Amino acid sequence: MSFIPNDKTALGLKRRWFRHLSLRHKAWLLTAAVLSALMLALSLGIDALIGRSFRDIEAQGVADSAARAREIFRQKAEGQQRLTYDYAVWDETYRYLRSPFAAYRESNFTPAVLENLQVNGALLFHPEGRLALGYRLLRGEAALGTPPADWVEILGPLARQLVEAGNVGRAGLLSLNGELALVSLHPVLRSDGTGPVRGCFVHVALIDETEMARAAALAREDLRLRWPIPVPDGADSIPPGADHFVLGQEPDFSRYAVNVPAFDGTAMPLLELRLPRDLEHETRDALRLFYVVLIVLLLAWGVLIARALRWLVLQRLERIHAAVVHVGETADLSARLPERQGDELDGLALGFNRMLDALEQARHRHERAEMEREQLREHLVHAKKMEAIGTLAGGIAHDFNNLLTGFLGSIELMRHGLRRDDPAQDHLNRMEASAQRAGGLVKQLLALGRSQGERRVPLHLGDVVADALRLAHSGLPATIDLRFRNEAVDDRIVADATQLQQVVMNLITNASHAMADQTSGLITVTIAAVQLPDEGYPETALLPAGDYLRLAIADNGHGIPDHIQPRIFDPFFTTKPVGSGSGLGLAVAHGFATKHQGSIGVRSAEGQGATFTIHLPRPPETPVRPLSPERRPLRLLLVDDDLLVRATLGKGLARAGHVVTEAGNAHAALRLLKESPNGFDAIVTDQLMPGMTGVELMRKVAVSHPDLPVVLISGYMTGLDAAEAAAHPHARLLRKPVSLDELDRAVREVVPGA
Are 67 and 173 members of one domain? Predict the structure, then answer.
């Protein structure tokens, strides 16, 4: 019994047969199949492809040519409209319509002027459409004539409509009784654009053969600009809304009419576009010949392609495949293929090597990005920590500073009532010193947050550092040598001088403590101008590129262990014994650098000393307002909800010679201002008060009394409020605790002539 395979079995055998063929035989079969399919596809699709392609090309060519032609007229209309605007929105034209004068006509309506403006006529109409002035450049003559009556009849009503519509001009193509012209109109206004509209100015540029030839040259097409274009044979009218339409068919070319928008928005056929008809036939014949030649060549070279496929392609692909498998299995990015300049497979090998290079670089970038991401995360965590501490410190500082202000004020008042040799003076001095020290601790706490009220002024970094070093030098042991070097030619910055001085002194103090048990020590302070980015300082990686000043404070002490360095800028972290330090000095320095758009970092190793580096940006110089040396009594309105503070400050200001009126809150202060609008020279107010803050009071006073100065006293203020107070032209911000002398100076600084 014979076995007869079914259809599925036969198909499976065919597939297995082809799969087991060698690559050489597969190349032969595939080459023959591709050539046969290519010849069949070309023979069947050539007519359809050519016909559709050339119809699309012709349609796109017509559309592109029409768009270029319309763009030429649009640009000319815009240019002429700008010209008309210059004449219409002009005080001289405005004045002429009210009272004509010869100088206006003689200087603006001459043949040279119209030729230079490339217009054929200029007309000036009254609001009702009556001609006030008009000239036409005579063709072929350097002379002017009166505009034709039909111009006035057509343009007069248009000018009246434009005047009634408002102060917007128009431009477009218009038929002036057989003459095609580009017309631009604009209402006559003053030079500043104000009205009322006094008339309408009109420019007329005739579209003649010369202008049409220039437009055809700009379009770079076989364009013949004619006007009017007759309606094609067999058509009753122009197709509405069409960009172009067929005019007719000639033996050698097709004719199309291109519509250009007219003055009234309708389509105006102006351009005749000619496209050759024989291009399609010639190209079809050429392609058919090319097809025959190509088929012959393919048949001739088919055998060579199949034979060369193995040793030109397959073997090299096997080497590339082996390399890919090796990299995939071992992750060895150092593997490389031999490189040579050749065909696509050589390019593939080169691309494979470049891919491995890119992967290695990407691995390095990823590792660096991870490092930067970790630095950024640590920076954000530290910033949030500092913000939370600043908010907490601000709330505590407000009430504490109120107590210190009253305490210091009472001490000053008590001192004035005692003799200089009174034994109580020593007790008062110690009380004042303790209060000032408490105030200093509060300022350190406030320096940790972003809500601290600051007074940033232009200053020279070298001067501030030198002052700080002079203050710190007296407290240094005799065994420590302090050296300062300023290498920056321009050391201008904008910063809070008090905070900067405090940061420098804190860093000098820390450096001296690191060398306390040494027989000799050296502290070097250096200022240098640098430009970031600088990869040598990791702390500057997140700073924007630009010019900076680098303040470096180095010592030769014991150094900082590696495991401690990540925590040294944390608030309240210290390695000193209990009671020997607050742990705020470096945290304050970090907060100062961050708030001034800078950075701070440390480089240290055990036994090799430490170097703290602060980078600060160099902004432009800011002018400083001079103060008046004169002194006179002032009428002051004192606002504070704390009775003790208000009484203490009131007595101190009265003793300084001022007339003081007190108010327990902002609302009471506003009532006093309303009752006596000119009764005060300045307002002295606390910031945090129930019902209305000092900044809110400052805003209301700026509306009703814009020139009345305001002195804000605050132990805690948000950054936005501090910025608003600093931006006020007649305001001054003081931080608690404040002395009576400091308050008196601030009041006299903000009051002109005080």
Answer: yes
**Domain that includes residue 92, residue range:** 55-288
Count of structural domains within the chain: 4
The answer to the question of residue 358 being in a domain is no
Are 274 and 254 within 8 A, CB to CB?
yes
Burial class (CB in 10 A: 0-12, 13-18, 19+), 563: exposed
Report d(CA 107, CA 102) in Å as an integer.
9
Helix (H, G, I), strand (E, B) or coil at 110: coil
CA dist 65 and 549 (Å) reads 61
Burial of 9 (0-12, 13-18, 19+ CB in 10 A): exposed
Q: How far is CA 573 from CA 245, 511, 595, in A?
A: 85, 16, 21
Tell me the C-alpha distance between 262 and 68, whole Å: 16
DSSP category for residue 147: P
**pLDDT reported for residue 251:** 67
Contact 725, 696 (CB under 8 A): no
Q: Is residue 536 part of a domain?
A: yes
pTM of the predicted structure, to 2 decimals: 0.36
**Residue 98: which H helix or E strand, with range?**
helix 91-98
Closest CA to 159 of 183, 180, 191: 183
Is it the case that residue 621 has pLDDT exceeding 60?
no
Q: In which band, very low, low, confident or very high, does the pLDDT at 364 lie, cut at 50, 70 and 90? A: confident
pLDDT over threshold 70, residue 440: no
**Token digits of residue 99:** 């009272």
Query: Are the CB atoms for 506 and 514 separated by under 8 Å?
Result: no
Q: How many CA atoms lie within 13 A of 114 on its CB side?
A: 26
pLDDT in tens, 144-179: 999 999 999 999 999 999 999 888 899 988 888 878
Integer distance in angstroms from the first to the last C-alpha of the chain? 130
Q: Is 536 helix (H, G, I), strand (E, B) or coil?
A: coil
What does the alpha-carbon distance between residue 195 and residue 2 come to, in Å, rounded to a whole number?
110
Q: Are residues 655 and 729 in the same domain?
A: yes
**Residue 164 domain flag:** yes
Note the pLDDT of residue 294.
Answer: 73
**Do 23 and 98 fall into the same domain?**
no
Residue 197 structure tokens: 């509209």
* CA–CA distances in Å: residue 238 to residues 40, 284, 552, 665: 46, 34, 83, 81
Residue 268 pairs with which residues in a beta bridge? 260
CATH number, domain with residue 130: 3.30.450.20
Supply 490's token pair: 């321009």
Q: Where are the alpha helices (DSSP H) in 134-268?
A: 149-165, 209-219
What DSSP assignment string belongs to 306-351? HHHHIIIIIHHHHHHHHHHHHHHHH--TT------S-SHHHHHHHH
Question: In the structure encoding, which two tokens stand for residue 11, read together?
Answer: 């198909």
What's the confidence (pLDDT) of residue 96? 94
CATH number of residue 493's parent domain: 3.30.565.10
Structure tokens at 331: 């992750």
Q: Are 550 and 493 in contact (CB under 8 A)?
A: no
Q: How confident is the model at residue 191 (pLDDT cuts 50, 70, 90)?
A: very high
Residue 602: which of 546, 553, 642, 548 has the closest Cα? 553
Burial class of residue 116 (count of CB atoms within 10 Å of its CB; 0-12, 13-18, 19+) = exposed
Residue with tokens 């799969």: 19
3-state helix, strand, coil in the chain (%, to 5): 50, 20, 30
Q: Are 249 and 275 in contact (CB under 8 A)?
A: no
- 579-602 CB burial, b ≥16 within 10 A, e <16: eebeebbbbbbbbbbbbbebbbbe
CA nearest to 522, candidates 569, 561, 485? 485
Cβ count near 688 (within 10 Å)? 19
Mean pLDDT of the chain: 78
- 3-state SS of 588-611 is HHHHHHHHCCCEEEEEECCCCCEE
The answer on 746 and 689 residing in a single domain is yes
Pair 492, 604 in one domain: yes
